[in-house]
Amino acid sequence: MTREVPTLFEWIGGAAALEKLTANFYVKVKADPLIAPIFANMDARHPHYVAQFLGEVFGGPAEYSRERGGHAHMLTKHFARHLTEAQRRRWVSLLIDAADEIGVPADPEFRSSLMAYIEWGTRIAVITSQSEPHAVEQEPMPRWGWGEVKGPYAG
After folding, report:
1. Half-sphere exposure of 94 toward its Cβ, with a 13 Å CA cutoff?
2. Chain centroid offset of residue 108 CA
3. Which of 2, 79, 85, 103 is most solvent-facing, going by the fewest CB within 10 Å?
4. Do the Cβ atoms of 81 and 45 come closer than 8 Å?
5. Angle at the Cα of 138 (from 140 to 43), degrees rounded to 5?
6. Are the beta carbons of 34 and 85 closer than 8 angstroms?
7. What is residue 143's predicted lDDT score, i.e. its pLDDT?
8. 46-57 and 14-31 helices, crossing angle to 10°
C-alpha cells in the first residue's frame, strides 16, 4: 500500500497553523529594535498575507496568487528597503522562535525543509531590497517540498 506524502503545508498544520505562526512572529517583530522600523507602517493584514504566501509555497491553496498577485507582487514589496544581513538574520531568528513557541513540528526532515526555504526566501528578499522599483515579470510561485524545489528558481 502506497501512502501519499503530505505537503509541507499539511505537515505544519495548514492555514490555521500558519496564521498562528505569523501572528506570533509579527508580535515579536514589532517589539524588536532592529527590524521593527522596517514594519512600522505594516498593513494590519500583513501577517495574514505572509501566512497565505507561505501556505502556497508549502503546497497549500493558491490564495496569495489569486488575491495578491503571486510571486511578482511579493518581490515588489521588498524594493528599495535596503535590508541588511543583520536584519535578515534577526527575521530568521524571530520566525524560528515563533515556530518553536507555537509547536510547529520539530522533526528534522520538516525543520530542514522549513529552514531551507527561510534561508532561500530571506536571501532573495535582501537581494531584491537593494533594487529600486521596476516592473517584475510574473513567474510561477516557488513550491517547496521535502528536499526539492519546484518553480522559477529550481535548477
Report:
1. 22
2. 19
3. 2
4. no
5. 95
6. no
7. 92
8. 130
- pLDDT band at 137; cut points 50, 70, 90: confident
Contact between residue 53 and residue 118 where contact means Cβ atoms under 8 Å apart: no
Residue 129: all three cell numbers together = 531590497
Least confident of 92-96, 116-120, 151-155: 151-155
DSSP classification of residue 61? -
Counting beta carbons within 10 angstroms of the beta carbon of residue 115, is it exposed (0 to 12), middle (13 to 18) or buried (19 or more)? middle
Strand partners of residue 144:
149
Alpha helices in the chain (DSSP H): 8-12, 14-31, 46-57, 63-68, 70-76, 85-102, 108-129
The pTM assigned to this predicted structure is: 0.91
* Owner of C-alpha cell 517584475: 136
Q: Angle, to 10 degrees, between the axis of helix 85-102 and the axis of helix 14-31?
A: 130
Domains contained in the chain, CATH given: 14-150 (1.10.490.10)
The number of residues making up the chain comes to 155
